Amino acid sequence: MSGELIPIMVVAPLMAAVIANLLHGKERQLRLAFVGFVFLLLFLPLASQYGIHIFGGHERSQYQSSNATGIIYLFGQHQKLLIFILVLIGYLVISSYMGVYKKLSGPYLGFLMLGIGATSAVVMADDFFNFYVFMEIALISQTALAIATGTFQAYKSAVKYLIIANVCGNFLLLGVAMLLSLSGSVNISDIAAQISDGQILMSDPLLITAACFILFAWLYAGGVFPFHNIKSELYAAARPHSSAIMQTQTKFILVALGLIILRLFSGIWGVRQVMMAGSAGAMIFGVIMALKQDDYHKMLSYHAISQGGYVACGLAIGTPYGILAGIFHAVNHVLYKSALFLGCEALERHKGTTSFSKLGGAIHSIPFIGFLVLCAKLAISGVPPFNGFQSKLMLMVAAFDAGMPEITMVMMLVSVLTFISMMKAFHFAYLRSLEPAPRNKADPAELTHYTMALVILVGLCVLLGLFPDIALGYLEHVSLTAGAPWR
Amino acid sequence: MIEYVMMVAAIVIAFLSLVPKDLLKAVIIGTGIQGIALAFVYQRLLAPDVALTQAIIASTVMPVLFALVVYKTERYEK
Amino acid sequence: MMQVMSFLTAAALLIIGLWAVVYKDNLIKKVMGLTFITDAVNLTLITMGYNEGGIVPIRLPGTELVVFSEKAAFALPQALVLTNIVIGVATISLILGLCIKIHNEKKTLSSRRIWTDER
After folding, report:
1. Segments forming the whole domain that contains residue C17
2. Whose CA is closest to A84, among A52, A107, A116, A114?
3. CB contact under 8 A, A177 and C99
4. Structural domain boundaries, residue B6
5. Chains that touch C (3 or more CB pairs under 8 A)
6. Of B23, B44, B49, Cβ closest to residue C28
7. C-alpha angle A136-A137-A141 in degrees, rounded to nearest 5
8. Position B24 in a domain
9. C9 → closest Cβ in B7, B53, B70
10. pLDDT by residue (tens digit) across A57-103?
11. Could A174 and C90 be called an inter-chain contact, meaning their C-beta atoms sit closer than 8 Å?
């Protein structure tokens, strides 16, 4: 087993999407097929060796002598970690969906699989061609998951999201066109080598314009300021379990495109400053909007934006420690935020509503789920021994070491506000007693799938909190190759 | 010579197609005629396969899609 | 000369498309602005591969390789443009379907009236 398994990590989810569409209506075969598929997908990133997959099978020529136009997938250490976490969360979301809903929808599962395959390709792509196509596919699959709820608010948010997604995708392609005209290649490693070698000058106005366009596309695709509202509206319009997989996709696209920008453009002054401004705006505005929300699901969506600002900040610092902290925070955030979203869906199935004014006293009827959700809330606030504490500490130290103690103060302030908001939500949803008590809609016995998913996710949070080196070992290589000192 | 005329025509038609209140006229001009003008320009820019694709999509697929939507929603912009 | 005029056309189309997406009130005209932006980006991509006085990048039998590689236009951006056209059609058809659904509910396609009750 060698590099042949690399493209299968993208092809297998796409085939699963096609088969899910065909099997729509046949319940038993759909469930059997999906159990098989997801175990195959979980096995693939663990079994595949590190390597390069070159489409077309031609030899990769040296960059000095020719314009290599290789279409390449790179499967390195951080890709393995990210794809495994993505497929694990996809598995938990699909098992919750299958366990709770009696009639399955084939196209819905197809779009979930399409999103997983597209995000795996975005994380692995080393050339702009693959990256652009699969990023558009991932954005459309996110919209499809939101449209599937059928509410009018979902249609409005989806139209806004798709129009701006198309504009920003075209801007990304415009930046790629400028880079192609400068260097003659769409391969990111080749362009980076040409820039660092001096064949393309850093003060070239065409390069700076290309950097501006690609940075604009990153601001949108990652959900940082000023496009944070659009992403949070889309998460709030979908069902909570699909919000879990949607925010995973957004975080990993944010990391992938951010790494590309750092590899190509970190020599240009102003690029990391813009990234820092966007991430600070996302952190602050996300948590302030979350504090004034009245709906549990909407509040969680705004917190997802705020934590995305943390990840973007880590990438914007750009030093090796900063990149390490940023990607580690992305991995941690995806785990505990999915736990929170699944807990929100369990609460909604149990009580029938997600509005704070109508919830209360759930700790008496679903105590174990309440305890697990409390663990996830402590994780997002940065309390030891959970993983949020480790990654937020690393982020603050990275900002301080780069000479920016103001960013450390902002991170601490946002962390405190996150804690306040989460504890308020826990009090309203679980602890307080409301007269008259809201009726229980679903039996606690129906929520076993959610309990199992929450146990796995919170267990991983505790594991990464106590032994962070398990994940950090996978991220060292990329942080050393993409990092540069802050100027 | 004629490609310069087509380029200028593409810009002018694109601008003029956003003015009418009759949505059917707007979409047929804005996607149909403007797309065909661009297909001509692509052919002169040494890209025949792209010209073919753009001609097919801009003459049949896009106007039909937009006209269907105008038929199902409202004809005149209020 | 041809490349310069072509880039200017693409720039003008981009500006018209952005103006339509931001300032126009009707949803269908916003979507037409999206098609203009896509057309502008495609035109930019193909223009940068243009070879002055060159030939089409299809190798006919009887052409020598040296002559072909000197005079042919750059073929890679043409592949990118073909992909972009298809992506554009798919996304725009999805947006138009959503427009029909929104009109069924609200009986209007004016973006001011659809998004005004969120205050």
Report:
1. 2-118
2. A116
3. no
4. 2-72
5. A, B
6. B23
7. 120
8. yes
9. B7
10. 665 555 544 444 567 888 888 899 999 999 999 999 988 888 888 88
11. no
